């Protein structure tokens, strides 16, 4: 075994995963490592993946990138929530916002809402951000200052923590939407300016040594490339980890059957139309349609199960949903590999992005998985002894995040009130992941809390579960019995404070479009 510290990293793949990894590693380790990124000029990137989690801000902060610098270059906008449209029944909507749940006398406000809520909207009663979403407001004023929502922007004691260390301490009030291709371009420049070696070529072979570790990769035009650590960012192909190292893939399809998508990128006059500050997921007969508003276009797509719908029907439905603006736009049909690799790090190969695993994008978790994996890779970066314990720890962290998100997504389908097509009827008879059935029973009498949700870090705090449970509607939820014997005055004071604060902010904040138009003038 080599006694040298592994300091030559070779990344294969130039999609969001490849370039996020290259830029982060260079920022983390500078000239202590060499980074080479090889991407095919012929095999395209997936071309979707434009909505994120609020924790993504730590990625940009880590790279020292200011919103004014990178957002206009990537046609980026703010995302305050996911809006679920028609999941309970047609015409109904609710938000899953980025906002910590207020607590009153030790109970979450949603619990008080179940006991004695002022209206039938748990989201607008309990969260300021849901009201800002309904009103299409930006979370920042025109001078760039941020609304005060009980979080600490740039708080010294929190900066430098990984995402998992942040959870529960802070909830930043928004995430981003951005054009995936433009972000990859932006990060390409960021990385190559800092010394990442960029090769456009195809990897045709992966050569292993006698121990089964990657010795080198063989490219079509640039010959052999050697490295110490190889990062597989080749998307669903999994060229290094799944193909060369034969790591099995664990499918989630028994619990999450959507395996296909059709996507459109539709240019629109956003000044006229406005920019909604949320990602929308609109339930359909055999799946759901995402709508992601960017500065200048929307990204949209129908995620469906091919057992219930043909690609042609899905495309027709999507085009009808968007309207005449989509007529000339070419559709991108995608087969999705749902699940995760048994191990994401084997020997000297770590897979990040779609090559590691993926679940349908209902809660925009793809880029979150990438960000989490990169943070964990830095945390578990090997020394000369390549301790297997580090890889074991990395693999369990990745598996927990993906398995936890799977549970959360299954809750959306178990909870959905829709039962008007076979697809929605079948959501109630399908298998659920181990442990979830028991948790679902518990949540009927006790709202989700840190003691009774999936027990390992997976990016979703208990309030997220409350939102989906109360919003989708099929699983009965009730207030903690003791609240029936408690004075609700303090809770009503909190509901009134949320109402007043929302009203004031709606009156004073600019619309999302106005904010980004002015940001462009400023930058
Ligand atoms: P890709 O984009 O597929 O890139 C693969 C790269 O590998 C390419 O550069 C290709 O050229 C290269 N490559 C492949 N084979 C070779 C070879 N032999 N030699 C050299 N290079 C090679 N995530 C979110 O966070 N939010 C969302 O809203 C969201 N929506 C999604 C919607 C859909 C329908 C899908 C399928 C995914 C979505 N995702 C979303 C996930 C997100 O798109 C991905 O996580 C993200 O784009 C990363 O992809 P990637 O870089 O792993 O793979």
UniProtKB/TrEMBL annotation:
Protein name: Tryptophan 7-halogenase
InterPro entries from the UniProt entry: FAD/NAD-bd_sf (IPR036188), Flavin-dep_Halogenase_NPB (IPR050816), Flavin_halogenase (IPR006905), Trp_halogen (IPR033856)
Family: Belongs to the flavin-dependent halogenase family. Bacterial tryptophan halogenase subfamily.
Transmembrane stretches, start-end: none
Taxonomic source organism: Streptomyces flavofungini
The organism's place on the tree of life at top rank: Bacteria
